[in-house]
Known about the structure:
Elements lengths: L1 H7 L6 H10 L3 H6 L2 H6 L4 H10 L5 H10 L3 E4 L7 H4 L7 E6 L8 E5 L6 H16 L3 E4 L5 H11 L4 E4 L15 H9 L3 E4 L11 H12 L2 E4 L7 H11 L3 E4 L10 H8 L3 E2 L3 H13 L7 H4 L6 H9 L5 E2 H8 L3 H13 L3 E5 L2 E4 L1
Parallel strand pairs: 3-4, 3-7, 4-5, 5-6, 7-8, 8-9
Antiparallel strand pairs: 1-2, 2-6, 10-12, 11-12
Amino acid sequence: MKHLNAFNLIEGVGSQKLALLMDYFDSAEKAWGAPLAELVKAGLSENLAGRIASERDRIDPDAEWEKLEKEEISVVSLEDPNYPELLREIHNPPYILYTKGDPSLLNSKMIAVVGSRKSTEYGSRVANSFGRDLANSGVTVVSGLALGIDAIAHAGALEAKGKTIAVMGNGLDNKSIHPRSNFELSQEIIRNGGLLLSEYPLGTSPLPGSFPARNRIMAGMSLGTLVVEAAEGSGSLITANLALDFNREVFAVPGPIFHLQSQGPHSLIKKGAKLVSSVSDILEEISFVSESKNATENPKKDGYRPATEEEKSVLDVLGQESVHVDTILKLSKLETATALSTLSMLEIKGIIKNMGGQNYIKL
Length: 363
């Protein structure tokens, strides 16, 4: 594990690269000591292989592992039997997960609760109530420790003396916890038998791109995602759409029709999300899902089916040869912002790869 952590400290070595290395080498330790030519043979670019060869001269795997132990942070890899079973089935699952707290929760019955950072009084009451009632029903409440709905859902679960998992887009060391205003909440989660979870190593500060990646973990590891309040185009809707892509349940709480924060849930309901007014509405669905041995299709086995027309337009352009973004824009006939957003989402899902210089291939 210490060598997986060491690789994860090197910029450019993400889940897909770790998977390539582990497929080629017998162990992360062998990969760490491999010459540059062997790293290239494993499927890495010469630039990345060169960066690894240079960076490992300054990274001491043992010393970095001691830092994790000092922070009481554990590591779970994709090959570990304790790795979340549902998360293992998505496209591009995190190869390495950092945990702080009770790791046994990784395979509990989970529901993600997401919503606006600028929650209304109504939304706050709803998030607290659902967080509390889900926890009372033995469900682990998953959220992102963000301001607003996330923090309130966590707090509701804690009020019920239940379990909750905070999935974050930053390192789990005390200095990296974000937002700082929710640091005490993060510690309360740990003290009460909950869990902090991240795919990012020690010292990682959150970046804009960290949050969509974080959202795929929340959606992927949970039986369903509940959206309480969300404006159109918000991160909460990204989580919900990812849940749909992963063949998970999506639940939405209706709100006042004149409020902007109601637009997201109402849009989801129109698209087929289940309207819920109490936790019993959710429990009926997840009881059915969890009893089925085939609750989740394995998209890697079945082949990826585009979730939107925009994804289909982009994927129709891409193949095994790299295509520049300008060509993608021209052939897909999509607006620039739409095309770039679609490319980002497909890359998060592990369907395409940015080869550098805004050139993409289909995996």
